[in-house]
Amino acid sequence: MRVDIVTIFPEYLSPLDLSLIGRARAAGQLHITVHDLRRWTHDVHRTVDDTPYGGGPGMVMRPEPWGAALDALVPAEQPAERPAEPPPEPPAEPPPGPSRVIVPTPAGSPFTQAMAHELAAEDHLVFACGRYEGIDQRVFDHAAARANVSEISIGDYVLFGGEVAVLVILETVSRLLPGVLGNADSLVEESHADGLLETPVYTKPATWRGLDVPEVLRSGDHARIARWRRDQALLRTAVRRPDLLAALPPDTLDKRDVAVLTGGGFPVPGADMAK
Ligand code: SAM
Known about the structure:
By secondary structure, the chain is α/β, with parallel strands linked by helices. It is built from 9 helices and 9 strands.
């Protein structure tokens, strides 16, 4: 996957050299380039912002440098579909596929694991990191004519800028790329993979500060362990994220699931539809 990130603070993205993302870059699975937006300014002060039309506090990012940046990074002629896989020798630059422009903004659609899967299937992501009161809207209205533009929020709170949001989105997406995570099975059992939160996890020692690891996890009985984990995931989700439980398709729960939830004090509407 090719990734271009445009920001006025390129150093903010330095964590992308670390850990598994850094390793994926070195292995050629992820080709990330960070661009300084000021490269596309032409005045002596390298200005990127101005006062808002209509008045109000703060500054707005001007359209000219952003327009020039997207012109340079999003080809005017977009390939209709994903090109053939690049040759295996890393770190060869993959051929450009269709581009997806991501605009982090607290006014965007909420970022979810499902959205991360969607982005992980793209060939080319271009992130536009806003600052101040955001970027002139015409930049994205214009770019939408030649690329898929998504305005995405990482949560209902306001950051100083889009850089941290890009780190969040990119870390989530890169975990889903083939070969990036050491053990791909981790993706199957974790929170949000099946609409439930993950069960509590434990490691050695079996007793620590007077607290024991649940007996079932030490029993070696895989069927019992699987059932216990399912029960814990259901109850934890019911307590912490009832919205997730309510969003599960009714046929996802079997009769035992319904009994566990009801027994835990969480009646399940439409329980008679359980398998
Ligand atoms: N005036 C904007 C509003 O009320 O929607 C907030 C601008 S914020 C101070 C500056 C930049 O931070 C935004 O353009 C965006 O890039 C980023 N940002 C802030 N909060 C965010 C969030 N929850 N999710 C994604 N990006 C965010």
